[in-house]
C-alpha cells in the first residue's frame, strides 16, 4: 500500500472541496451548518492454522452534515461523495430541520473556540506493505502461539491490519481544517486445553507507526502465556477481599468516570456524580491529565468532532474533580464553556506511584487479581458496580491459581475514593493510560 505525499495532498484537496461545496449549498435554507468528511483506506487480513482466512481492502468515505435553521436542527449523511449526492444530502438535512422542534441550545460551536489552526501531532505514518507481508505477519503471530506449548490445541487465528484516514471538518464560521492519521495492529488468539477444560485468550499490539509494533513472535508468545495461565481455573467462596484490577481492565475502571462526568449526564441529572464538581472524588495523590496533543497518541486530535480546538487540562487534580466533559450543546444547557469533548476524551493519563506489579502483589498480600470483566452491571445513576470476573488468587504476595466464574461488586464512588495505589505498569494501548489499581476491599460472589 504505497501512499505518496502527492496522493495524500490530492485526496485532502478533493475532500476539502466536498466540504466547501456542501457548506455553500447549505447557505440556502439554513442559518448555519457544519460538515465532516472521513475517509479510511487500508487492509485487514486474518489467518487460521497458517491458512489465509480473510483478506479485505477498504477505501471508504462518508460525509455528514448538520444544518441549523431558526433553532431547528437537521442532519444527514452519505457515503457517495459525488456533487450530486452531496446536494441531495444537504437538501435532506434542510428538509429534516423543518420538522424538528426549536431548541435554543442548538447550533455550531462558538467561533472563538474553533481550531482555525491545527497542530501537527505526528499521527500519520502509513506503511508500504503488500498483501503477502500482511499475511506473513498474521501467520507468524499465530504460529508463535501454536508452537509455544502442546496444550494449545486450537486457534481463532492471527490478524493484522493497517489503515490510514483523512478527516476534514468545516462550518459556516469559516473553519476548514483537516488532518491525517494511521493505525496498525497485530493480534493472535488461541485456545488451550487441559483435563477436558478449555481456555481462550489473546494478545495484541497497536501503534500509529508500523515500526513501533511489537514483533509477531512477541505477540504470539504473549498470547500463549496468557492463555496457558488460565488453565486449571477454580471458583472462589463468597467473601470480601482486596482486589487488584490489572492495567488492561483498570482503564475501564476510570472509563466509567467518562460517562459520569459527561455534560449530557449532568444536564439530564442522571449521574451519581451530579454534585461533585470541585469536590474530592479520588485520593489526593491521584491526578488525571488529559493530553490531546500527545505525539503519536492513539487518542490524540487537534480538534474535536465539532471543530473545537483541544488543549491539555486536568480532569482530576489531587483527587478533586476539575471539569465536566462538555460539548457545545451540553455547555449551553449548563451555562458553561465548551471543553472540546464532542466525540470523546483525548489521552487520559494517570501516573503510577512508583510500584511495579510485583510490589502491588506484595502490598495486597492476599486477594484477587482481576484480568477480565464480563457483563454491563454498572449503574450510571447510583454508581453500583457488579460484574462477572476472572483472574488469579494471590496469597502472601504470590499468585496461587487462576479463578473464574465469580462476580465482584461495590460502588464506584467508594472504589475510586478508597484506591490504595496505581502501579507503574502503564497500559498505553487505550485512550485512558494507567497502571494496575489496588482496591482495599470488594465483595466477591463465588460458589
From TrEMBL:
| One GO MF term | metallopeptidase activity
Q: Which residues form the Metalloprotease TldD/E C-terminal domain?
A: 239-446
What are the subcellular locations of this protein? Cytoplasm
Q: Which Gene3D superfamilies match?
A: PmbA/TldD superfamily (3.30.2290.10)
Q: Which InterPro entries match?
A: Metalloprtase-TldD/E_C, Metalloprtase-TldD/E_cen_dom, Metalloprtase-TldD/E_N, PmbA, TldD/PmbA_N, TldD/PmbA_sf
What is the protein name for this chain?
Metalloprotease PmbA
Q: Where is this protein primarily located?
A: cytoplasm
Metalloprotease TldD/E central domain: which residues? 125-231
**Metalloprotease TldD/E N-terminal domain sequence ranges:** 33-97
Protein keywords:
Cytoplasm, Hydrolase, Metalloprotease, Protease
Corresponding gene?
pmbA
Amino acid at each position: 500500500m504505497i501512499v505518496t505525499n502527492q496522493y495524500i495532498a490530492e485526496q485532502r484537496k478533493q475532500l476539502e472541496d466536498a466540504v466547501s461545496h456542501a457548506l455553500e449549498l447549505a447557505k440556502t435554507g439554513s442559518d448555519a451548518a457544519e460538515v465532516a468528511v472521513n475517509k479510511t483506506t487500508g487492509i485487514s487480513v486474518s489467518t487460521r492454522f497458517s491458512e489465509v482466512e480473510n483478506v479485505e481492502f477498504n477505501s471508504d468515505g462518508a460525509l455528514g452534515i448538520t444544518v441549523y435553521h431558526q433553532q431547528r436542527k437537521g442532519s444527514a449523511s452519505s457515503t457517495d461523495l459525488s456533487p450530486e449526492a452531496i446536494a441531495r444530502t444537504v437538501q435532506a438535512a434542510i428538509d429534516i430541520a423543518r420538522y424538528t422542534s426549536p431548541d435554543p441550545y442548538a447550533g455550531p460551536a462558538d467561533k472563538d473556540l474553533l481550531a482555525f489552526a491545527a497542530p501537527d501531532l505526528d499521527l500519520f505514518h502509513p506503511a508500504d506493505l503488500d498483501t503477502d507481508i500482511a499475511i506473513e505477519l498474521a501467520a507468524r503471530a499465530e504460529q508463535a502461539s501454536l508452537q509455544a506449548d502442546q496444550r494449545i490445541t486450537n486457534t481463532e487465528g492471527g490478524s493484522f491490519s493497517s489503515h490510514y484516514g483523512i478527516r476534514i471538518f468545516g462550518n459556516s464560521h469559516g473553519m476548514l481544517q483537516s488532518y491525517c492519521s494511521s493505525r496498525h495492529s497485530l493480534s493472535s488468539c488461541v485456545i488451550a486445553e487441559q483435563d477436558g477444560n478449555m481456555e481462550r485468550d489473546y494478545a495484541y499490539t497497536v501503534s500509529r507507526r508500523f515500526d513501533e509494533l511489537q514483533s509477531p513472535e512477541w505477540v504470539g508468545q504473549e498470547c500463549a502465556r496468557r492463555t496457558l495461565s488460565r488453565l486449571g481455573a477454580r471458583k472462589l467462596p463468597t467473601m470480601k477481599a482486596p482486589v487488584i484490577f490489572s492495567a488492561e481492565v483498570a482503564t475501564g475502571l476510570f472509563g466509567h468516570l467518562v460517562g459520569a462526568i459527561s455534560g449530557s449526564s449532568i444536564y439530564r441529572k442522571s449521574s451519581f456524580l451530579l454534585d461533585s464538581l470541585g469536590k474530592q472524588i479520588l485520593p489526593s495523590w491521584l491526578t488525571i491529565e488529559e493530553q490531546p496533543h500527545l505525539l503519536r497518541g492513539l487518542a490524540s486530535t487537534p480538534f474535536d468532532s465539532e471543530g473545537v480546538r483541544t488543549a491539555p487540562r486536568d480532569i482530576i487534580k489531587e483527587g478533586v474533580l476539575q471539569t465536566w466533559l462538555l460539548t457545545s450543546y451540553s455547555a449551553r444547557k449548563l451555562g458553561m464553556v465548551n471543553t472540546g469533548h464532542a466525540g470523546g476524551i483525548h489521552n487520559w493519563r494517570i501516573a503510577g506511584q512508583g510500584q511495579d506489579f510485583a510490589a502491588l502483589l506484595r502490598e495486597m498480600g492476599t486477594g484477587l487479581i482481576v484480568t477480565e470483566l464480563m457483563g454491563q452491571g454498572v449503574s450510571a445513576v447510583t454508581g453500583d458496580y457488579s460484574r462477572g470476573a476472572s483472574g488469579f488468587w494471590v496469597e502472601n504476595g504470590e499468585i496461587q491459581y487462576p479463578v473464574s466464574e465469580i462476580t465482584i461488586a461495590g460502588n464506584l464512588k467508594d472504589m475510586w475514593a478508597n484506591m490504595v495505589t496505581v502501579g507503574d505498569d502503564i497500559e498505553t494501548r487505550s485512550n485512558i493510560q494507567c497502571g494496575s489499581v489496588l482496591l482495599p476491599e470488594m465483595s466477591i460472589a463465588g460458589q
